[in-house]
Amino acid sequence: MRFFTAFTRKVTLGLCLLGGTAFFAFNSPSERYFDIAKNLDIFATLYKELNTYYVDEVNPNKAIKTGIDAMLGSLDPYTNYIPEDEIEDYRFMTTGQYGGIGAVIAKRKDHTLVIMPNQGFPADKAGLKIGDEILEIDGIDLVKKNNGDVSKLLKGQAGTVVKLKIKRFGKPDPIMLEITRARIKVDNVPTYALVTPEIGYVKLSDFMSEAGKDVRKAVVELKEKGAKKIILDLRDNPGGLLNEAVNVCNLFVPKDKEVVTTKGKVAEWNKTYRALNPPLDTEIPIVVLTNSRSASASEIVSGTLQDYDRGVLIGQRTFGKGLVQATRPLTYNSQLKITTAKYYIPSGRCIQAIDYSHRNEDGSVGKIADSLKQTFKTVSGRLVYDGGGVAPDIVTEKQTVAPITLGIESKGLFFDYATEYYWSHPTIAGPQAFQLTNAEMDAFYKWLADKDYDYTTKVEASIKDLESHAKKEQSYDAIKDQLETLRKKLSHSKEQDLVKFREEVKEVLEANIVSRYYFERGALEAGFDNDTDIQAAVKLLNNPAEYGAILRGRK
Description:
It contains 18 helices and 21 strands. By secondary structure, it is α+β, with helices and mostly antiparallel strands. The chain is 41% helix and 19% strand. Helix 1 packs antiparallel against helix 2 and helix 13 runs antiparallel to helix 14 (476-490). The model is unreliable at 1-26 (pLDDT under 50). The protein has 5 domains: 2-75, no CATH class; 97-185, PDZ domain (Pdz3 Domain, Roll), CATH 2.30.42; 191-395, Alpha-Beta Complex (2-enoyl-CoA Hydratase, Chain A, domain 1), CATH 3.90.226.10; 403-455 and 493-530, no CATH class; 458-490. The protein has helices at 2-22, 29-53, 60-73, 87-95, 122-125, 147-154, 211-224, 242-250, 297-307, 403-410, 413-424, 438-448, 458-472, 476-490, 494-500, 502-526, 532-541, 544-551; strands at 80-82, 97-100, 103-108, 111-117, 133-137, 140-141, 161-167, 175-180, 182-185, 191-196, 199-203, 229-233, 258-264, 271-274, 286-290, 312-315, 323-329, 335-344, 375-377, 383-385, 394-395. A hairpin with a 7-residue loop joins strand 7 (161-167) and strand 8 (175-180). The relative contact order is 0.09.
């Protein structure tokens, strides 16, 4: 009964926080609160009967969390229950900090591989290398452990020691490493570099704590090296802390300018965020790169710079997440992450693309209809729209990867060959200068010849789908011969594809090799020449007249 009472208080608090959202359709507050109390009572008595009479034992933590998750799942994907044992993971998501060795680890079948040590952190300092296989952690065999298990074993209090038994390429016997854990902070800016002598590039991958400071540091150093124009890369950035989005905008827009306004049910929580500090540079030309995975805080930055005509956006339309979340404490050290407001950028538009408040009968949600979208204007009068993410000023095609490249990648063959290359080549040229010779590519193809990998092209997949539908509709016999002829004509050949996509395969292999010497920063820089979005940005920044015409709305 003691557990039962505690649980009831816990769920009561959780539902009271959600009450206005989940039960907004009632006519009066008293009627709404009566229904809340009634349904809480039903839930409590239901669980009591379930716990007493169900044929098997019911795990209360699992069963009730399932119920809570289902309830919150009916609202939006961003309102989540965080139990006590997941608080550390959530803290890492918001701060980018944890106690550990500073390395990305991944499983490949039963093998635990080091994918990327973070430069300058304990794993790197202790000599852990990309491609090392971790056999044991503190004497615990990892063969049957999943990624989550391995992560928990590696994390711990800063200052404690973890012992790793590793297998390294070219070494017959395992190596023992002792690594002292430290407080790890994941970089918001994994790389910044000069793309040309006058164009600097900043990759902003997260909006965790100090993202604004990280971008400032990068831009200042690039300007000291000669940068007179900046490419800010927000592609694949899922967002993060709203105040850090404001801090990033503050670098490029004047003090006191409005950056974003939040509006929700609780009026006293509504707030307008402004640039509070003197800007770093309000004149330097900026191109912002976006894609469909640029979300939330990324959209605040890209949309605000667009609204003030402060930079040109290049890439693809952003994700369209115009919702703000806050955390609320619950009992027993758990928390509720809850959507509390929508945000509006300076032109007045909200870029939220999905309408969670109007679900279809089957529970699914759709995007906001074009007929409901409104038109807004930037400072110079350019037309922009709400309800569908942030549309770039220059749209580029999403880069695709050939099936053969994906096939080699999926089997880890680029990774494995790069490991072998690293141990037989003590040094290489810098990230942007390194290139494999034709002889080295031929050596890779020779190494690849007896490796097991296969792939399906999109055309082959379409033929397979057509065959499946024809069988369901009982028309297969009529087209069987034609399908077989088409399949033979279009069937892929590894040898032909290796020739056709040699340059693409070369680019991916070079990035893998460069990462061994120059970490994540090097892998990103190695791709500058082959990145169509970056090259489009360079072209535009080298044409001031066109850049200015876009911002003035004359193009």
